Structures are given as C-alpha cells and as structure tokens.
Amino acid sequence: MASNEMTEVTGISEINPNALICDFVFDPCGYSMNGIDGDRYSTIHVTPEDGFSYASYECVGSIYDDPNDII
Predict the structure, then answer these.
(1) CA neighbours within 13 Å on the CB side: how many for 47?
(2) pTM score, two decimals?
(3) What pLDDT digit, counting tens, does each position of 20-47 carry?
(4) Tag placement on the chain: N or C end, fewer CB within 10 Å?
(5) Residue 41: beta bridge partners?
C-alpha cells in the first residue's frame, strides 16, 4: 500500500485536515508521517513486528480549543 493511501485509509489525514503531510511506508513494514499546519506539528511512527511493535504519536499545538477534544 502506498503511503498516501495508508494515510487516507487509516483516517490519519483527518486528525488535522489542514496539515501538509509527508508520509512514508517502510519495507518490509512500518509507517511514518510528519504533518505541519502553521505553528502546529504532528508525527506518527508505527513499526509492527512479530514479538514486538512500536507506535508513537506526538503533537505540538492543537486545532482544538478544548483539551477533551484531543483525547
């Protein structure tokens, strides 16, 4: 699956629809995304592996005013 397709199918592109996204799919497995929207920045990294996996999400700034909307 192409990186932009994975970003769309998973709904990642809807986290901040205004963000400019740079995404990448790793072979044999893995996904990385960096998004920027003005002074807001987000990044996602996923590495699914047998026996261990890694996933992270980090953001600076929010498109939401209410912290409850973030969770």
Answers:
(1) 6
(2) 0.77
(3) 999 999 988 999 999 999 888 999 999 9
(4) C
(5) 36, 60
